[in-house]
Amino acid sequence: MAHYSEDQPETIHDTPQEPSNELVCQVLNFKTDGAELIHMLDGLSATDWEAFRQAAQHQGVSLLVNQHLSAIKDEIKIPGSLSTGWHQEVLTSATRNMLMLHEAKLILSALRAQTLEVIVLKGLFLVEHVYSNISLRAFSDLDLMVSRNAIDQAIACLEGLGYAVETYYDSGDVNCDIKHVPPMTKPNGPYVEIHWTILEEDEPFAIDTAGLWERAVPARVAGVDVLALGLEDLLLHLCTHLGYQHHLNIGLRGLYDIALVLDHYQGQVDWQKLITIARQWGVERVVWLVFKLAGELLGAEVPQDVYEQLVVGNVPPDILSGARLQLLAGEGQPVQMTPDLAKLARSKGFLARLKVMLSRVFIPRQSLARLYNVSPRSLKIVGCYFRRTRDLWRNYRGAVRQVLVGDEATMAGAVGEERIEHLRSWMGKSS
């Protein structure tokens, strides 16, 4: 996971056809009962099952699909190869998650021994407190939040366990463009991300980190007493993480987290509290959009008046349809695409395109420092601009050439990136 490559491409996958995506959604929908599942799946051909398998895998929900089908497995004819593959995937996920939880126990115990308060975020919390089985929610890193003034102490604590920050970081820097320490790693260990907040400060929102701590609730994770986000904060974090930070590219896997939290804590959400916090942060449109998708695709229950309070007035119809398309990634070809490649594709004339390319070479010093693990105050940082020019040329010369000649697949990728920009622009405006 290349966390600090500013130019890491959004890969537009060769996606299974839309009917297969629809079927995956219907299988995962909380309102679909067993009889409906049997009716939908009865009589699928081997080709249909394979397309269904590919769609589930593409969306990162194979484990969940397998779980939803387990209750009716004797009523439908699932190809043996699929059943075997899903069973192996369950075993692999369970083993990996047990190892992750073991490592989390060591880390959380060490932090607690240092009397550091810790809020456990995302997958590490969800896998034990929301999902019914630890094999069902894959997660690749451990996200932990400590107070900003405890960052150095937390880093030192993990260093004592053999972890090291993988690139340049100085807690004395402004660091408004990141929300956590660069990933800490050790041989055969998971990534550990030590957060001080849940969203970069240079985004168009105002996350009240002090409020997160005030509303945090006790939780036992990996056998250690820690803290978790309050329920309303948890939902808001998952919505902003999926909808805004990751441009909906996490797909159904991220959306299912939200739908499952709503189902698991049914009747416990304080909707007025959630709306108030969303307004304070300025994320009403993000939450409205993600909840709409969760309701439409997965049957999540959100009161109608919540939508009306989050966004007043009509929403342009292309917002919801574009978000749905982006979430399911129902079009496009395999192509490397970044926001700047899309901007290059839209630019006309030599000077306009040169300006775009130079802007990707001369990025802020701190970003360059994290990219090449060099202090921004060192003279070596100057040489990093030459390294960056070389690396950009090596990695993107083919894509740039495709943009300049108007390659059809590349331009389709640019259209997808424009859709993301349009959605993010709409979400970034307060209601």
How would you concisely characterize the structure shown here?
The chain has 3 domains: 64 residues; 233 residues, 2-Layer Sandwich (Beta Polymerase, domain 2), CATH 3.30.460.40; 93 residues, no CATH class. The protein contains 19 helices and 9 strands.
Descriptive notes:
The chain is α/β, with parallel strands linked by helices. The chain has three domains: 64 residues; 233 residues, Beta Polymerase, domain 2 (2-Layer Sandwich), CATH 3.30.460.40; 93 residues, no CATH class. 57% of the residues lie in helices and 7% in strands. The strands form three sheets. It has a five-stranded mixed β-sheet with strand order 6-3-2-8-7. A two-stranded antiparallel sheet has the order 1-9. The chain has a two-stranded antiparallel sheet with strand order 4-5. A hairpin with a 2-residue loop joins strand 7 and strand 8. Helix 9 crosses helix 12 and helix 10 crosses helix 12. The longest helix has 34 residues. It is globular. The N terminus is likely disordered.
SSE topology sketch:
Blueprint lengths: L9 E3 L5 H11 L5 H8 L4 H13 L3 H8 L10 H34 L5 E2 L1 H8 L11 E5 L5 H9 L4 E2 L18 E2 L5 E5 L13 H7 L1 E5 L2 E5 L2 H15 L6 H13 L6 H11 L2 H15 L5 H7 L6 H12 L6 E3 L1 H8 L3 H12 L3 H8 L7 H26 L2 H20 L4
